[in-house]
């Protein structure tokens, strides 16, 4: 056996890892022992492997997934870019959550004024998008709106965009973006259907779109207290143009159907 080989315990201290971690990384192929005694099963490492071991420890301390650690060690270009993008997305989500909590601290639990309104049925162009869970709804909605505006022609004037969301959110959420059409208007490649009319519970949200869940909570609570059967989906009617309106002044009507027109 070569003289520069170190037993696993000594190498673990040198690499600032535990013996259990070294065994795990060896099984995954990230850091295989330089030599394994066939009779005893003892594992030995070279001192030159310490840099790779320390690099694994560094990357894991930064929450880099083990498969990506392997890509980094193998020299794959851009291996860490996806991790960075994921962390940036998580940070943005945390900031949105913090802004909602700050509003709750300042104003308490949502108690938006809910009113009953009657909405007529209307022809709409619809684009659907799937969200990978509740946290992905914002992205999916933006994507659906962009596709809708890119393909819908013959929209009613002024344009009234509507977001449609299921009341019960699962692992996969289908969201829809709709725009009202003139009587002879074409969807321009988007699906054309009739959005049912009827009696709706409605509340007005003023503020950023990422805080709409607070007003939605108030509408759903109002319906539940009165035992109103809710006929989804939940509608978001976007009154303001976000291109020219400050986020804290955006006006959105949240509506849920209680009784469809017969």
Description:
The structure is a single chain. The strands form two sheets. Strands 4-9-11-10-6-7-5-8 form an eight-stranded antiparallel sheet. It has two domains: 5-73, Multidrug-efflux Transporter Regulator, Chain: A, Domain 2, CATH 1.10.1660; 115-260, Regulatory factor, effector binding domain (Multidrug-efflux Transporter 1 Regulator Bmrr, Chain A, Alpha-Beta Barrel). It starts with a strand and ends with a strand. A hairpin with a 6-residue loop joins strand 2 (35-36) and strand 3 (43-46). The protein is built from seven helices and eleven strands. The chain is of the alpha+beta class and 262 residues long. The radius of gyration is 28 Å and the shape is elongated.
Ordered list of secondary-structure elements with their pairings:
Blueprint: E1 5-7, H1 8-15, H2 19-28, E2 35-36, E3 43-46, H3 50-61, H4 66-73, H5 81-107, E4 115-119, E5 122-131, H6 137-151, E6 161-165, E7 173-180, E8 191-195, E9 198-206, H7 212-225, E10 231-238, E11 251-260
Antiparallel strand pairs: 1-3, 2-3, 4-9, 5-7, 5-8, 6-7, 6-10, 9-11, 10-11
- Give the low-confidence spans: none
Structural class: alpha+beta
Rg on CA atoms, Å:
28 Å
**Global mean pLDDT:** 89
CATH class of the largest domain: Alpha Beta
CATH superfamily of the largest domain: Regulatory factor, effector binding domain
**Main sheet?**
8 strands, antiparallel
């Amino acid at each position: 056996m070569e003289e520069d080989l170190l037993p696993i315990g000594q190498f673990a201290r040198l690499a600032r890892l535990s013996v259990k971690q070294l065994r795990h990384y060896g099984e995954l192929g990230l850091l295989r022992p330089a030599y394994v005694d066939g009779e005893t099963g003892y594992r030995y490492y070279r001192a030159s492997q310490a840099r790779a071991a320390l690099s694994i420890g560094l990357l894991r301390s930064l929450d880099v997934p083990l498969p990506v650690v392997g890509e980094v060690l193998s020299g794959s270009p851009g291996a860490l870019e996806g991790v960075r993008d994921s962390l940036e997305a998580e940070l943005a989500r945390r900031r949105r959550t913090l802004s909602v909590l700050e509003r709750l601290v300042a104003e308490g639990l949502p108690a938006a004024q809910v009113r009953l309104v009657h909405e007529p049925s209307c022809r709409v162009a619809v684009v659907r998008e799937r969200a990978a869970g509740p946290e992905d709804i914002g992205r999916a909605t933006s994507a659906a709106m962009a596709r809708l505006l890119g393909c819908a022609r013959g929209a009613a004037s002024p344009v009234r965009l509507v977001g449609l969301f299921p009341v019960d959110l699962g692992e996969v959420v289908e969201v829809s973006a709709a725009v009202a059409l003139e009587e002879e208007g074409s969807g321009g490649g988007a699906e054309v259907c009739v959005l049912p009319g009827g009696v709706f519970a409605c509340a007005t949200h003023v503020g950023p779109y990422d805080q709409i869940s607070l007003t939605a909570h108030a509408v759903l609570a109002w319906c539940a207290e009165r035992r109103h059967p809710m006929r989804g989906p939940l509608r978001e009617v976007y009154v303001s143009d976000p291109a020219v309106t400050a986020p804290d002044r955006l006006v959105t009507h949240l509506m849920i159907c209680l009784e469809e027109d017969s």
